[in-house]
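Please fill in the sequence for the structure shown.

STRUCTURE ENCODING:
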């Protein structure tokens, strides 16, 4: 039976349970079960490899002890064990990060997890279905990405508050171009389910890891932070499946929740798709310089990324069109970016890359810290032949980036091999300054195009209405802040 069939069967069983309400809770329920099963699979490998092995949590809570036997505890006995024993113990487990790091990972994973299921017999059926997947098998382990991507595609609400899960093709292309190397500290400040980090691990492993010592180096070079519990749990599980045995550097928290000046980290590589279109909670903007304060999440993350990159550090960041043409604080941030970094490439992505989450047009900014920007290359990614838009069933593919990869060149010689073509053009920083840092620069090689396809026009209209509503919500927040400031001034 395929993994996708197993997951569908599990979802069908959960729908029968009165305690699980909707896709979000089904995903939450499945996530902690997956975590414990995968954690135990990794424990079995470590036990085989280590002479002085000691389980990081009490052995009765390891998957093999209570879940692996299809004829094991079920019904009320199973529910009582999970609700009254397993969860309280793991949530309150004492595991110092320096003395028992893998135990610490378990405690963190369960800090906000919850058992939604109320029927112990159905829960046993879910566990037995999950046992059909062998995560010690490298082929099945490799397909874990397909598991949660499939589930996340079912979560139509995943696009709320600007949280869009990056298509694998985009993630892979960004990591491919940034080329993180062995020993370089890699960071995703809004790591979601860990897609960029997992892709970075694979890239380093496939290109640079040659020895056991190299593998140990890789273990300590991956860093991420995720604000929400569920994606963080998935990210932790994802890291374990990619061979990061102690993913304590993938933390649960809000990266923006401390003063920018207090950061002392210097990262070699940052690859990320920070949330955009949403606003941060009151007070977060106070962590940033007064002239750069805003509540728009993407703008805050861009400032943070410039701050925490080391000199010579490289970044690839997904940002919406609004960042390119926005004024006010956005202009100041773009000025900062081009003065502190060499913003050498902006890849303009076509509509639909992030379907079904949003129709907002997006871009990938590639930059290196430590030198001022002199020229910016733009590359407009075209749809492949026969494609008018991407969709959930027909997403973008990595192979589409072949032309960009062949065109790319080398930053060491300032991309001397690059040439303008129907998709690529170069703009000097002087022209950008004249435009007041408006980076929404159209392809000069393409004339105005008029689209008469009614289905596509309707889709564009619906997407625009969503974007307009999102902008209205942002404006309401700005007006509320302004009124609050006036009231304080009068007082």
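FILLED IN BY: designer on duty
SEQUENCE:
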């Amino acid at each position: 039976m395929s993994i996708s069939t197993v997951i569908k069967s599990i979802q069908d069983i959960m729908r029968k349970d009165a305690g699980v309400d909707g896709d979000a809770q089904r995903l939450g329920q499945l996530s902690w079960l997956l975590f414990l099963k995968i954690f135990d699979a990794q424990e079995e490998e470590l036990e085989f490899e280590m002479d002085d092995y000691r389980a990081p949590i009490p052995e009765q809570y390891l998957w093999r002890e209570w879940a692996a036997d299809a004829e094991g505890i079920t019904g009320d006995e199973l529910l009582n064990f999970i609700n009254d024993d397993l969860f309280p113990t793991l949530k309150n487990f004492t595991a110092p990060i320096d003395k028992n790091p893998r135990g610490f990972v378990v405690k963190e994973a369960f800090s906000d997890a919850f058992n939604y299921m109320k029927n112990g017999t159905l829960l046993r059926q879910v566990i037995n279905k999950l046992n059909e997947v062998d995560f010690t098998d490298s082929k099945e382990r490799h397909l874990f990405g397909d598991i949660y991507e499939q589930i996340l595609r079912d979560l139509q609400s995943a696009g709320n508050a600007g949280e869009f899960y990056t298509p694998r093709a985009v993630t892979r292309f960004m990591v491919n171009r940034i080329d993180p190397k062995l020993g370089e500290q890699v960071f995703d400040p809004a790591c979601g389910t860990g897609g960029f980090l997992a892709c970075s691990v694979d890239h380093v492993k496939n290109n640079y890891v040659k020895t056991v010592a190299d593998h140990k180096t890789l273990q300590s070079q991956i860093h991420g932070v995720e604000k929400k519990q569920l994606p963080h749990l998935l990210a932790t599980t994802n890291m374990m499946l990619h061979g990061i045995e102690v993913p304590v550097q993938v933390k649960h928290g809000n990266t923006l929740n401390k003063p920018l000046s207090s950061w002392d980290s210097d990262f070699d590589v940052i690859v990320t798709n920070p949330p955009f279109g949403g606003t941060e909670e009151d007070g977060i903007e106070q962590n940033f310089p007064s002239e750069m304060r805003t509540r728009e999440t993407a703008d805050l993350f861009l400032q943070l990324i410039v701050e925490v990159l080391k000199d010579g550090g490289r970044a690839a960041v997904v940002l919406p069109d609004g960042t390119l043409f926005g004024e006010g604080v956005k202009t100041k941030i773009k000025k900062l970016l081009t003065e502190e970094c060499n913003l050498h490439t902006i890849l303009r992505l076509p509509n639909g890359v992030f379907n079904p989450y949003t129709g907002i047009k997006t871009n990938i900014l590639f930059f290196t810290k430590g030198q001022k920007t002199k020229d910016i290359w733009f590359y407009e990614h075209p749809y492949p032949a026969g494609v008018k838009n991407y969709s959930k069933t027909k997403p973008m593919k990595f192979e589409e980036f072949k032309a960009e990869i062949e065109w790319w060149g080398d930053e060491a010689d300032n991309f001397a091999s690059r040439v303008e073509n129907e998709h690529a053009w170069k703009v000097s920083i002087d022209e950008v300054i004249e435009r007041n840092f408006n980076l929404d620069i159209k392809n000069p090689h393409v004339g105005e195009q008029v689209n008469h396809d009614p289905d596509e026009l309707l889709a564009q209209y619906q997407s625009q209405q969503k974007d307009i509503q999102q902008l209205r919500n942002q404006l309401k927040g700005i007006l509320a802040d302004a009124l609050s400031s006036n009231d304080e001034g009068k007082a």
